[in-house]
């Protein structure tokens, strides 16, 4: 195993054991659930969007393998402060990396810790579950929850 692979593995284990963004958010946070039946991963994502349209807070609950948990935690790090469009763009880029397709490495930052999953075909959905859940949550919230404009 190369040094980089060892570092990436450490990040995944550390994040899955001690996630920084575990939990739930109170209303009016958007909640969305995702499941990956092939592995048994279950995820509930809570998102809060500020008046400026950026994601101001996010948490996740649920259980699953180290890859799905680490992916959820790293995802939340990456989307905080982003607009929905930026988050969707990042989701697309991340999934491209995991699927072994062309992607923008620089934009992914610490998310590259999961790049090795592209060689573990059975685990691809573990890594993409949080992002698919995010996309579904954002799709269900195209308009801001408040009508004060
Ligand atoms: Zn899994």
Map the helices and strands.
Blueprint: H1 3-17, E1 30-36, E2 41-49, E3 55-63, H2 66-79, H3 84-98, H4 105-108, H5 124-139
Helix pairs in contact: 1-2, 2-5, 3-5
Bound molecules: zinc ion.
Task: Give me some keywords for this one.
149 residues; alpha+beta; Sufe protein. Chain: A; 3-stranded antiparallel beta sheet; 17% strand; disordered C terminus; binds zinc ion
Write up this protein:
By secondary structure, the protein is an alpha+beta fold. The chain has a single domain, classed as Alpha-Beta Complex (Sufe protein. Chain: A), CATH 3.90.1010. 43% of the residues lie in helices and 17% in strands. It has a three-stranded antiparallel β-sheet with strand order 1-2-3, with helices on one face. The longest helix is centred in the C-terminal third of the chain and has 16 residues, at 124-139. It is globular and about 45 Å long. Zinc ion is lined by residues 36, 39, 41, 64-65, 67-68, 126.
* Secondary-structure content class: alpha+beta
How would you write the strand order of the largest sheet?
1-2-3
Count the domains.
1
Morphology: globular
- What's the oligomerization state? single chain
- Report how far apart the termini are: 55 Å
């Amino acid at each position: 195993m190369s040094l980089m692979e060892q570092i990436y593995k450490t990040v995944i284990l550390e994040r899955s054991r001690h996630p920084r963004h575990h939990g739930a958010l109170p209303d009016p946070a958007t909640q969305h659930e995702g499941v990956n039946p092939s592995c048994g991963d279950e995820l509930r994502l809570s998102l809060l969007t500020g008046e400026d349209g950026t994601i101001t807070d996010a948490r996740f609950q649920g259980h699953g393998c180290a890859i799905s948990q680490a992916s959820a935690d790293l995802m939340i790090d990456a989307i905080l402060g982003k607009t929905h469009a930026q988050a969707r763009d990042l989701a697309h880029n991340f999934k491209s990396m995991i699927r072994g397709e062309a992607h923008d490495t620089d934009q992914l930052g610490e998310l590259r810790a999961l790049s090795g999953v592209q060689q573990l075909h059975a685990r691809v959905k573990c890594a993409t579950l949080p992002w698919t859940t995010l996309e579904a949550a954002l799709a269900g919230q195209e308009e801001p929850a408040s009508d004060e404009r």
